[in-house]
Every structure is written in structure tokens, then in C-alpha cells.
Amino acid sequence: MQFDRSLLLHAPYNLSLLILIMEPPFINKEKIAALLPMHECIDVMQRMFLSLANGECVQPLRSIMRLPDKPGLLGMMPGYAKEMEVMGIKVITVFHNNSSFGYPSHQGVVMLFDAQHGQPLMLFDAEEITAIRTAAASAVATQLLSNNDADVLGVLGAGVQAEKHIEAISIVRNIKRVHLWGRNKNNAAVLSNKMKDKFNMNVIVENDAEAVAKNASIICTVTSSTQPVLRGEWVNKGTHINAVGSSTPASRELNTAAILKSKLFTDKYESLFNEAGDFLIPQKEGTITERFVKAEIGEVLTGSKQGRMHPDDITVFKSLGIAAEDIFSAWHIYKKIKN
Asked: What is the mean pLDDT of residues 81-85?
């Protein structure tokens, strides 16, 4: 069926119309959710980390344009995956106060290109890919770094990433109980009921973050806070932490004490050393250096560096979110559609 481009002369210039005439096709969030189930994305993220560790990905730092007169930014995240001979870029906006207006905080598009001749292959809703692959990457880290018998999950935050992390961590560990805290108590209650209905889970909403941490053997911090929500004195021996919510030099979710008592791992050194306030603020205080970081997750997967060394170790996976995660996820969906 051919689209009559003359309709452009008589129709509003809006996204819906653009999608109708797009070539390559645009894959919406509903299709992405169906084609990228969490258990498959965890496997995809493991392959991505291995490929990154083996030097088979080009992964530049993201570029960020901040709006000069209001909160909000436009992020541009390019990358190349030699294994699939594709390149791509995620273009995403971040407006953390969007919930009060009924919009998601993260919105954008992932664009996938052939790396042999440069032709565009497919476009994807970035919000859904980001939500799934971020939690899947944390699940890979949790499987590598947490104790095998860790079975109580603590989640700080009550948004989309909280929901996805509960799902993802439950795939790689036998989670018997979830302790949940969010700054918005109503959101936390709604999420608790949703998880109980969806996964038949025992989910307990706590009044504060300290209660969550003191009950948990795995903790996921998935907030939009710029100030620490998790303090070192609350964390039990043997805990694994996925620090996910912050990705700028001036913001962090873990205080310095939490970092100092932990073994620190990340997705990519360059991202950590340039973007992670959880690392950069203690570094600026003079309490840690780059040598404090134990490994990238890919290095633990390949065996070139060690992960957890003792059951009492506290491990932290500082997740920045990198373009390779989006590209591998997009390629997984692309192959399913084309096949």
C-alpha cells in the first residue's frame, strides 16, 4: 500500500503522520515488549558485555545538550557492534519532572543502521528498550556478583525501573521477598500491588530507605535523586547493589561510605570515570582513585578479572547505560521481525 504524500499538504505535521511514511519502519513499545522479553534480554546483555570486553564494540561517551532555561536534556548515544555489522544511536530526552504532567521521564528513538553500506534498518521506541535492557544488564551483574543464596530484594524507587528490576532480578535469583520504598508512597503502594498480582510476590512497602537496605541481600537503587538515598551504614555484609538511577557527575544515589566499603564494578570504565557521580564525588573528596574500581562486567564474564571474592564482600555495579545495550537489543528485535 502506497502512502499519498500529497496528504501532507492537507494534514497537521505530527508524529503520527511521520510514522506512516517512515521507511525504515518504526517499532512501537508494545511490539518491543513482546519481542524483547526480559529473560531473552538478559542473554542479549551477556553477549553484549562479552563483545565489549573483547574489543568488538565502538562505544563513545554520550553527548548531552542541556536546555538553558528549564530542566531537561537531550542525550545522544552512538555505537558500533562488529559482531552484527550494525551501528546505531539512541537519541533520548530526560525530563525528571514529567510524571506530574503525565509523560514518561525518558522518551526518544533508537536508530539502527547497516555498517557495511550505511543504510538505515529500523527505528525503535527508546523508552521501552531502555526500560528492559537497563534491568537486564543489572540482572547479568547480579548473577555474577551477588551471593548465590541471596533471596531478599530491596528496591529504592517506585517507577518503571523499579518494576523492571523486580522482574529481572527474580529471573536470576530465587527472590522470596521484596522490600520497596519510594518517595511517593502512593506510587510505591500501586507498584507493590501490581507485583503481587503479576508475579505472586511478597512485596513489603517500607516507610524509609534504611528499612529496605537493612532487610535486603540485593539492593537496586533506581531513583531520580541527585543526593544519596543509600548510606553505607545501612548495608549488610554480603549485599550486592545495582546503582542505576544517576548518570551525571553531580548526582549520586550512594554516599561515600557506601562506596568505600564496597567492591566497585561498572559497565564501562570511560563512562564511570566521566559520568558517574557515585564515583566522581568520592574521587573529588580524595577518598578513592581509578584504581579503586575492580572491573567491568564484561571482564568478569571473560574471566580476565575476578568478581566477588568472599561471601561477606559488598559489591556495587554502577550502571551508566551505554549505547551497546540499545544496539544489541534493537538487533535482537530486528532479527525477529525480519525472520
From this structure: 96
CA 202 to chain CA centroid, nearest Å: 24
Q: What is the pLDDT of residue 99?
A: 77
The two domains 5-129+325-338 and 147-321 share their CATH topology (first three levels equal): no
**Structure confidence at residue 22 (pLDDT):** 54
Topology of domain 147-321, CATH: Rossmann fold (3.40.50)
Query: Does the structural domain 5-129+325-338 have CATH classification 3.30.1780.10?
Result: yes
Domain ranges of the chain: 5-129+325-338, 147-321
Distance CA(92)–CA(74), nearest Å, equals 6
Question: What string of DSSP letters covers 20-55?
Answer: HH-SSPEE-HHHHHHHS-HHHHHHHHHHHHHHHHTT
24: preceding bond cis by omega (within 30 degrees)? yes
Cβ-based neighbours of 62, under 8 Å, separated by 6 or more: 75, 76, 77, 271, 275, 323
pTM: 0.91
